[in-house]
Amino acid sequence: MLGCIAAIGVGLLLIGCSKPDKPKPVKYNLYVPATHLAAGQGDSSFNRIYIYDADSLTLHDSIWQAHFTESLDVSPDGEWLYVAGFISYQARRVIQKIDIRTKHTVWTRSDLWGVRCIANGTLLLAGRDVLSSDDASLLRHLSDTLKPLFGPVSGTKIAATAGDTVVTVVDVANGVDTGQFVPRDTSGIALSHIYTARLHPDGKRILAVGVYGSDSNTWFVIGDIETGQTLFRYHIYRPQGEIAISSDGNLAAVTSQGSPARGERGAVHVIDLRTLSFIGPTPPFPAGAQVKFLPGDRRIVTAPSADPSFFDAGPLLVTNMTSMALERVIWPMPTDPPRREDIGSLGIGPRP
Asked: First vs last Cα of the chain: how many Å apart?
């Protein structure tokens, strides 16, 4: 009996000393939708979503599409891809839910624009419509006076413009306005037009880019929603596209076209949101209108505008945040010479 007890005790000790299994590191995918337009008889048009490993930036899969992808988003669990696009460059738009594992389309909804996955993947924002991600049923239509802006969210709250000068925070779960901020230039005058705005994940700050008068008087502004105070203001010439916020909420990035007449080229401007200080632009190169932080927040990827009417072909450019130098150039279709392909909205999410 004592021997059995001792054996059990040793077994329990061994079990207690065994090391628990370490959680597997999360792998991420970078989704790059692109359209190739036929250049001649020996060529063919196609729409395709390229899937890169977000760490190594190697191409490992793709999904064929019947339309140009204007915007896309990935569910937080990485299982679903929500894609919004044009049918044959016509006005009719569609939104699709795609099973990333099987590449099968779960459902399709017509005549909706843009798509953003919110509320931990349970809701979608398509234009001013709030949809169920399960079946795309309409749950709520936001006020027609609002223009929702796509980007980082805080729970179910988003940034939207209300008129030309006011950025509003809206809770899409109930349509309630929860705060406002008016971006202003250094003289205190409200900017006359807001290009884009983003709600910081902390739900307390608005990041906005707007202009007063001409593009030579354009500003990147950070404001406190509760007090209306301007926390940071930075002059930027001819801004492009969106504002990106790192996953830890510590950094923001915005791109600019520069001015060829002044000998300026595009750049990525990075702001430290902890110290509210300007880190600096990357060395000048064509930065593109889209900007995303890659996993780990040490690198930034930029791409041209996600508007097919612009016919902006790649490349994708990767900037190292430590050296603030161009690290890598990526073409969606690695051919020699590279095929001209128009880039849609980039998406980053965990690998299923």
From this structure: 51
Q: Tell me whether the omega of the peptide bond preceding residue 281 falls within 30 degrees of 0, making it cis.
A: no
Rounded Cα–Cα distance for residues 315 and 331 (Å): 5
User: Where are the strands (E) in 183-250, listed by range?
Assistant: 193-199, 205-211, 218-224, 230-235, 239-245
Q: Phi and psi at residue 122, in whole multiples of 5°?
A: -85, -20
Q: How far apart are CA 159 and CA 165, in angstroms?
A: 13
Sign of CA dihedral 204, 345, 106, 295: negative
pLDDT at res. 312: 55
The answer to the question of residue 248 being in a domain is: no
CATH number at residue 229: 2.40.10
For residue 171, is it within any domain? Answer: yes
Q: What is the pLDDT of residue 82?
A: 95
> Average pLDDT for consecutive 10-residue bins of the chain (352 residues)?
50 52 80 77 76 92 85 92 76 87 93 84 90 94 83 76 85 88 86 88 90 79 91 82 88 77 69 88 64 90 66 73 82 63 84 92
User: Does residue 351 lie within any of the structural domains?
Assistant: no
CA 334 to chain centre: 23
Residue 157 lies in a domain: yes
Please give the pLDDT value at position 152. 56
Give the SS3 label for residue 22.
coil
pLDDT for residue 264: 56
Buried b (16+ CB within 10 A) or exposed e, 239-266: bbbbbbbbeebebbbbbbbbeeeeeeeb
CB 352, CB 343: distance < 8 Å: no
Look up tokens 């413009």; give the residue: 161
How far, in Å, CA of 301 to CA of 74, rounded? Answer: 17
Domain count, the chain: 1
Cβ atoms within 10 Å of 184's Cβ, excluding its own = 19
Supply 121's token pair: 């993947």
Question: Which structural domain range is residue 218 located in?
Answer: 143-235
Instruction: Give CA separation, 85 vs 66, 93, 145, 161, 166, in Å.
Output: 9, 6, 24, 23, 29
Confidence at residue 2, expressed as pLDDT on a 0 to 100 scale: 47
